[in-house]
Structures are given as structure tokens and as C-alpha cells.
Write a structure and sequence with these properties.
Distance between the termini: 159 Å
Structural class: alpha+beta
Length: 401
């Protein structure tokens, strides 16, 4: 039953046709949002209470109420509740003070848990039923434990929203290279896709530090004049390409879109011409251009008789091009090269002594080592021979007797 009731309420909200549209801008928001009403008594500078997806919030009216049918405006879906009363403004000021204390509490919990996130702001709804924390992080952060601790301290619904570098610049703001406030903070409603090709189309120096804005990304203003530069240089040769102008080959070294002039240079001279002359008189050169033959013309084939070296009596005809060498010339060259190589190899063999193979050398070394080891063993086995004189006196006496 509850689901059916919610569906009926949604359908009733869609069927509501508001008469007037009011542009309301919130704090820390770059663009105004339109809300519907049936009264035209809302003027620029009024503080109103409106209903948003977050809840009830206070905003400032940017322009007087406008009739939707007269100006063909987009039909708003959320209504303007009322003009802000004194009680609403008092609650709004109290919320600003409470947001500072909530910001410090959240920052202390982040440092205590050691989370890699940079907290940017904290915003209460008008009835303080919900608080929104906006933070910056390079990767996804597991903040489940942080939600538990903040819920036990603040006693309200908590939402954590992660944003990028460009969104941070939009919230914080800053002064750009032009001396004015950042475009995203001042009036831009959405971020465009910016690429380095836009800087190339405008002939800017590809220095990332100069082309980057406060957020560290490529500046949004690179897209403002990109379409004009593309239209001005449409049909022109690319920068650095070669062209033929007045029977002389040049290279395009620079282009000035404001003056519609291009500079052509070579080793001898430099010429400044207009874009019209570059389109009409200059001929782009892309390497060597080979002219095409007409469709009806046939290829010319030259018949030439070639004699083989192995069998001089046998002859044959082949289709040979004039630019390429004939078959017999190729064979003669190959045979001459082979004969020269054979003569050179024979001379080298005769001049140098015969070299032994690696296997023969190893065998000789092994034999020498074995003979040396065998001789050493035999020397150890031979007894030492000493000159000793033996005297036998007893034997001589017996013989004399």
C-alpha cells in the first residue's frame, strides 16, 4: 500500500503545472536553480525557503519571477515554499555556527582514523535533519567507521560526497591568469571536455604549466575560441608541411590567425603570404607524386632473348623490364662473385698454417696431462738408491783357516 501511495504522490507532483519560475542561488553554488510558484511576488534579492533533494534550504532570488508560458521556460519540478521569515534567518545563522564546529569534529575524526581525504566544507539543512560533508580524495575511501562516530556525536543524518579537483576550484574559487575570478566559480554551469588539441589549433606553446588553471587541469577558456580557429584555418595545409609556391619549395613555419597571414621559409629566403594565397596558389607536396597512367593504355612489355651459361645451345624468351637487369646478367654476376670468393678462400688457406680443430686440441691437452700424472706416480714408487759399503771381517778369517 505504501508503494502505491508513493507512486500516486509522484504522479501528482509531475502533473502540477506552475505558472511562474523563480531562479534561486544557494550558498557555495555556481549556478542558480529554477523553482516553481503560482505567485509573481518574488523579486531579485529576496530570501526564500525552497524544497530540494537534500531537504528544506534557504536561497537568494537571482531574478524576478518569470511567466513560464510567455518565455517558454523549462518546467520546474520543486516548489518555492515561502519567503524566509525572521525565524528562518535566525536558524540559518545558527546553522553557520554549528557547521564550523561540525567541520572541526569531522576533521579530528579523519586524522584519528588516518583516512586519506581532504575535508572541504560542511553544510546543514534548514531543519538540521541532515548534514553534508564534501571532501576531496584521489581514490575511494572506506568511511564506514567515520559515519558511525559522526552519527553518535552529531545525532543527525550524515552524507559524505567526494568531488574532483575542478569541483574544488568551483567551491573555493580563485583568481585566474587573466586577473578575473575563475569561470567555473563566476558563471559556468557545467564543465566542458578540454583537450590539448585545442591548444594546438590555436598555435599556443605546449607548456602545461601555463595552460593549466587553478585546479591543475587544462583551462576552460581554451574552448571559447577553438571553433573560431578551426573555421579560420579550415582547408589550409598543416603547420610544418612543405608547399610549392611560385615554383619554389617552402616550409610553413608560422601562422597568424588574427592577421590571416602565414610565413613560408626555406634555406634561401622567407615569404609572408595571406591565407587566401596559401589556399589557392600554394601546392602541398607530400613526397614524390607519381602520375597515374590512363585507363585505356596498356603496359609495354619488352621481349629479350637470354642464353643460359650451362647450356649455350638452349635459348628461351622472357618478359624482362628495361629498368631491371636481365637473367643472364644476374647469373654472370653471381658466378663471378662465387669464383672470387673461392680464390680468396684458397689463398687464405695456403698462406696460413693448418689449424687444428677444437676437439683435436682438447685430446692433445688431455694426453699431455695424463702422461705427466703417470710419470709422477712412477717416481713415487721407485726406491731410493744409495751407495753403501759393507765390511765382512768374520768371513775372511774363516776362509784363511
Amino acid at each position: 500500500m505504501s508503494e502505491n501511495i508513493d507512486e500516486k504522490d509522484a504522479l501528482q507532483e509531475e502533473e502540477i503545472q506552475y505558472t511562474y519560475s523563480v531562479a534561486v542561488k544557494f550558498r557555495n553554488a555556481g549556478k542558480p536553480y529554477s523553482f516553481g510558484t503560482f505567485s509573481d511576488r518574488f523579486f531579485k534579492g529576496d530570501m526564500v525557503v525552497v524544497e530540494t533533494q537534500q531537504g528544506y534550504e534557504i536561497g537568494e532570488v537571482e531574478a524576478d519571477a518569470m511567466q513560464i508560458e510567455k518565455y517558454h521556460l523549462h518546467m520546474p519540478t520543486k516548489p518555492v515554499i515561502r519567503r524566509a521569515t525572521e525565524r528562518d534567518m535566525y536558524d540559518y545563522e545558527q546553522n553557520l555556527e554549528m557547521e564550523e564546529s561540525a567541520f572541526r569534529i569531522c576533521q579530528d575524526q579523519i586524522t584519528e582514523l588516518g583516512l586519506d581525504m581532504n575535508l572541504l566544507s560542511a553544510q546543514y539543512t534548514l531543519d538540521r535533519s541532515k548534514i553534508l560533508f564534501i571532501y576531496l580524495a584521489d581514490q575511494r575511501v572506506d568511511f564506514r567507521e567515520l559515519l558511525k562516530k559522526l552519527g553518535s556525536i552529531l545525532h543527525c543524518r550524515i552524507e559524505l560526497r567526494q568531488i574532483g579537483e575542478r569541483d574544488k576550484a568551483k567551491i573555493v574559487g580563485g583568481i585566474g591568469m587573466c586577473g578575473m575570478e575563475c569561470c567555473c566559480r563566476r558563471y559556468k554551469e557545467r564543465f566542458d571536455v578540454i583537450s590539448i588539441n585545442m591548444a594546438k589549433n590555436q598555435m599556443l606553446a605546449l607548456n602545461i604549466e601555463k595552460l593549466s588553471g587553478m585546479c591543475g587541469k587544462l583551462m576552460c577558456c581554451l574552448k571559447y575560441e577553438d571553433s573560431d580557429y578551426k573555421e579560420a584555418t579550415e582547408g589550409l595545409p598543416k603547420m610544418g608541411s612543405q608547399v610549392e609556391y611560385e615554383d619554389t619549395i617552402y616550409r610553413i613555419t608560422s601562422m597568424n590567425v588574427m592577421n590571416s597571414t602565414a610565413k613560408l621559409e626555406n634555406r634561401e629566403s622567407a615569404v609572408f603570404i595571406t591565407f587566401d594565397d596559401l589556399k589557392e596558389k600554394a601546392i602541398p607536396r607530400k613526397g614524390v607524386i607519381v602520375p597515374r597512367k590512363p585507363e585505356g593504355e596498356e603496359k609495354k612489355v619488352i621481349r629479350k632473348t637470354v642464353t643460359r651459361l650451362n647450356d649455350p645451345q638452349e635459348k628461351r624468351t622472357e618478359h624482362v623490364s628495361m629498368e631491371l637487369p636481365s637473367f643472364a646478367e644476374k647469373e654472370n654476376r653471381n658466378t663471378k662473385k662465387n669464383s672470387r670468393n673461392e680464390q680468396n678462400s684458397r689463398r687464405r688457406q695456403n698462406d696460413r698454417p693448418a689449424k687444428k680443430n677444437t676437439g683435436e686440441r682438447r685430446n692433445e691437452r688431455n694426453n699431455e696431462r695424463n702422461t705427466e700424472r703417470f710419470n709422477d706416480r712412477n717416481r713415487e714408487r721407485k726406491p731410493e738408491v744409495k751407495n753403501v759399503t759393507v765390511r765382512t771381517f768374520g768371513k775372511k778369517k774363516k776362509q784363511e783357516e
